[in-house]
Amino acid sequence: MAGRKVYLYTLSFLLLLTFPRVLIAQQLSPISSGQELSTEGKAWVEETLASMSLKQQVAQLIIQWLPGSYTSTNSSEFKEWADWIKYDQIGGIYLSIGLPHSYAAKINELQALSKVPLLVTSDFENGGPGMRINHSYALPTLLSQGGGTSFPSTMAFGAIGDANIVREFARITATEAKALGVNLNFSPVLDVNNNPENPVINTRSFGENPSEVARLGQAYIEGAQRGGLLVTAKHFPGHGDTDIDSHIGLPVIHSGLDQLRNLELIPFQRAINAGVDAVMTAHIAMSDDESISTPATLSPRLMGELLREEMGFDGLLVTDALTMGALTNDYETGELAILAIEAGNDVLLMPSDIGRTIEAVQAAVKTGRITPGRIESSVRRILETKARIGLHEDKMVDLNAVDEIVGRQEHLDFAALTAERSLTLLRDRDQVIPINSDKTPNVFSLTYAREEHLVAGREFDVGLRSKVRKLVTRRVGPNTSVQEYKTLLATASNSDLVLVNIFLPPVSGLGDIGVSEELRSFIAAQNGSTPMMVTSFGNPYLLQELSDSPGYLLAWGDHEVSQTAVVRGLFGDIGLTGKLPISIPPFYSLGDGLERRGVNQDASFAEIHPEEVGMSRDGLRALDQAIVQSIADGATPGVALAIARKGKLVRMRGYGNLDWDDSSAEVKPKSIYDLASLTKVIATTTAVMLLIDKGHLNLDDPVMNYLSWWAREGSSKSEVTIGQLLLHRAGLPPFRTFYKEMEGEAAYKDAISDLALDYEPGSATVYSDIGLMTLAFVVEKIAGYPFEDFVKHNIWDKLGMRDTSFNPPPDLIHRVAPTEIDTVFRHIHVHGEVHDENAYALGGVAGHAGLFSTVFDLTLFGQMLLNGGWMDGCLSEGMIEGAICAPGISENVQIVSERLADVFTGRFDDSASRALGWDTPSGRSSAGDYFTSSAFGHTGYTGTSIWLDPELEMFVVLLTNRVNPTRENQKHVALRRSVHDLAALAIQDATVVKRSN
Q1: Based on the structure, what is the number of domains in the chain?
Q2: pTM of the predicted model as reported, rounded to 2 decimal places
Q3: Residue 9 is assigned to a structural domain of this protein
Q4: What does the DSSP assignment read for 79-121?
Q5: I need a labelling partner for 315 at 20 to 30 A (CA). Which of 95, 225, 543, 634 fits?
Q6: Range of the structural domain that residue 468 is part of
Q7: pLDDT category, 18, cuts 50, 70, 90?
């Protein structure tokens, strides 16, 4: 697609399957808090604990903050950190903002100083790795210094609602964090953001529905553990229903334990059940706790009785930062540490004075206030955590691997996908989206941000400049004067469209989260005179202050990835499908969100919610899991899948990788596969249908009418018809190894001419490559020009199938899945050229094999056939929202007549399972047991298939390269059946029964 990679990356299961693709040894093994320690690990824990003095034990409880930026090892700052580690012997460090290499190098330098390996922590909680290791800019040019992969906020994933995407997000975060040397991520945030006035959680949460927060939180834990990273559920027992920022003061929640159990605790219990490694406390108080002034962090009732005993958590219990105002306003450093330990905490995060903390806790042990056993139990947990991830064996980072892992292109592509999928359109009274550049030549872009947000709107405006003829950009902020706004009003009135882009943080600790009165007046003053769209790149609740805005779009993040996504969403390059994971009273409720389809030539289809077409989300997840497992079992390196029902897409995903190699690209919907025998139906059969429709060919015509060379004089082959070739009843053998002796079209025609029949035409059904080879020659003869040009012009171009071709060009090789390691004929790993030897000898173009395509393109083809031979153009009038359509096509297109489509796709008679060119299900069909008898489809030797079921109103495209590395691999057979069975059984609005024939 012109000018841009397609970001329909997908997901979920790059994840599981292929941890061989991770480049650091520590990342090869998934972990969880329930993982049994090795004998060596247990011995190390006990030996280390026994060797520690009381002071060393207390120091192990401390994790201290330090910046991730570059620091010389002989600076006074570094020497202070070195003292913490060498002399105080603290247990870990908590790194803040930096760049990848400075992060990793600093971790190595500090680990080298430690007697006991440091537990290295950070909080990639709200935006993934980019939250801490990206978004540094060189002044004065604001040149980006690059870094980790940046994602939109956590709430963006609530707007998407797909646990698979969350798993992959977490896996990528884990992969990059581990590459830097981070062991424990203080994420996910499992607070239920059920208070719109919450000044501290907001978009850090998945949303306000506790069940959804729990579901997505569990997915995050699973993905992170698969990536080899420890994770933390926070902030226990729930910080969502508060209206004070605990960085400043002590919030109080006015609900009892019963309400907590029915709301806030639901995500935490599910996380514990899923094996979360750590829990972080919340500095909040409960009105019915021991005292309204006792923070939960210091409450034995909440940390001990509730979390440990009732909920069954036995992992690391970590305080939130002990420097926060909710605690320091009322407690002295030493006493604070003692109370935290008494409450049951294992880790003291960021005490304000390390020395004072150690002294105070030591004194409490010596006076009997805290028992030695209490300290030992926490130290043992900490040491066991370190041993579980192998720190006792290898605590250093491979600095050479950082560049290979952090900010990888496939990670960036996936982040772009998440930003695009999360966009949530709530209001569009002026019908702005999608913007038509030709009809909207003059655009005014107004960015509202604080002065210190230097790059707010910059990437957004860059994207706009590539879309419109004239762009005027201005920037305002909280201090912009009334007079300046008057000037801006004049500019707006002379524009075709006004875009207001608000970059305000969703958290009060970062400044004013509301807009100025002047901006509100500016928006209200438009009063419909100029179309307008307001986009919030931060706080989603701004609409409460902007009730006069005619348009409101939520981007869920302010980084470049979100700015680019918004431009694409505004102009229809992508569809808009996000749904509110919160309510915005009094305007919008949980689950609200307008949908807009992508309409431009670069648009890709977005998956809809399966419930919209009567399918079960859980059923499709089971299908996803089956694919993942099959890849793990060695069926194929990867899978590209599309499932559509009732004209809409419920799955278009890639799973795994193009090859088994560590550096191989992940499978995407635009990954290109060798279709093998799908060529017979996607190209040859459809071409025959076209010629019959146009009156140039008949099923009963003898082949000899068109190919005089096809049979020698007096041969019984002279009576073979076009229909018999399509039905595989022509008397031909299944195949011949012509390629061993010849190459080129002329030689093949001679060989086919000399070929004797194996049986009387029409008397049996024997699947034959040679019949479809012949039909391609027939098409070429009638058309008067090459077969590949005929099908391209008459089928693929009309449907917008831009990646379907014979002999894919070299510049697409990176998207092509390799097939077999050929040790007999070509002696190469076949990649980018047809696997089938006869098709190869024919120059890569043949009627039986040779075609390459993607699930994206085959979705267009499949929908065309289910429609009865026609397809809507995406740019045509009256398009149904969310319907599959031909991208870049402005009118409806008819490929074949509905009458002929019915004739060709129904079983020809009861004597065999064949239709004309197509197969129909019977016995242990590749279509499984639940596709109906009205279904039709085809398979390809490389592991490809397409099955369509008019009765179920569904089709499934499944592309694999199962012959990689050898054709002896037959594990794809079970996979095919399983995929089709699970797809059919996911249907909920119709009765699905086992097929009788």
Answers
A1: 3
A2: 0.67
A3: no
A4: HHHHHIIIII--SEEEEEEE-HHHHHHHHHHHHHH-SSPPEEE
A5: 95
A6: 423-570
A7: very low
